[in-house]
Amino acid sequence: NGSLQAGDTTVPERSIPAGVESGAKAISAGGSHNLILKADGTLSGFGSNEYGQVPGVSGPVSSTHTFATGVRSMAAGLNHTAYVKNDGSLWTTGDGTSGQLGTGDFSGQGFPVNVGQNVQSVATGSYHTLIIDTAGNLWSTGDNSYGQLGDGTTQGRSLPTLVATNVREVVAGDAHSLFVRTDGTLWAMGDNSLGQLGDGTAVSRTTPVQVAAGVQSIAAGAYHSFYVTTDGALWASGYNGYGELGDGTTISRASFVPIATEVKEVGAGFFHSLFVKTDATLWVMGSNGSGR
Q: What is the pTM of this model?
């Protein structure tokens, strides 16, 4: 809670969940700020605001601050925020020094700027942003040091560049990216030094490589990755120093290994992971520092 990302001013960290907001439809956690999308389309944030990632106020935000309406999806990066409005427009705010805001330059923004139209969804890594448009095309912008933009180079971009077609879901880790095509195949690109791409190597990829098929949903932690198959099986790869893969070891994996069955949804943080089973039970694994 050093930047008030636990949502109050009374504790240095929180090991037991506390209520923050009601009526939430979706949530996203960044490096030290959080976003809450309510059922009525209002988007709020709290926590660190050093770069304007929770725009409209100054300093750390201890309680939810609403800064946009008419929003249908959003994502929190390390120090930037991206969201899509009901009209398909894409807006970004916060740190832009790696080009992750997609504004055409490498400067930050203290207030949201419109950087795209006809957008379906958005995902954010630490310093890069991934965009699916309404036609299913995948675009990327920001830091590309490990090839996480998937454009065949390691050159950073300040404007979105086309990466793939027929894409229905995308997620981003610290410096790697995963996406699922409409045929259920899973593709990965970027940093692979810890096996987070799951292709059986430790070689980073500047263009997408297929790593699985029959995929229903995906998640990316900082240095690890998950996918859930259409029959509810959960698979994991990447860094496992804290047991965040959930395979009963602390051995990192360069190829995906099976973790659980009857899984409905999965999520991942820097060094911890969570999943929901079809019986609505919540399961967690990995680092428990700061009570996460």
A: 0.95
What is residue 222's DSSP assignment? S
* DSSP string over 30-94: -SSEEEEEETTS-EEEEE--TTSSSTTS-S-EEEEEEEE-SEEEEEE-SSEEEEEETTS-EEEEE
Residue 88 φ/ψ, nearest 5 degrees? 85, 5
Place of tokens 């195949």: 185
- How open is the CA angle 286-168-135, to the nearest 5 degrees? 150
> Which residue do the tokens 């790696």 mark?
98
User: What tens digit of pLDDT does each residue of 243-271 get?
Assistant: 999 999 999 999 999 999 999 999 999 99
Amino acid at 183: D
Nearby residues of 259 by Cβ (< 8 Å), 6 or more positions away: 226, 234, 235, 236, 245, 246, 247
How far lies 154's CA from each of 122, 140, 257, in Å? 21, 12, 29
Per-residue pLDDT tens digits for 81-120: 999 999 999 999 999 999 999 999 999 999 999 999 999 9
Residue 152 φ/ψ, nearest 5 degrees: 85, 5
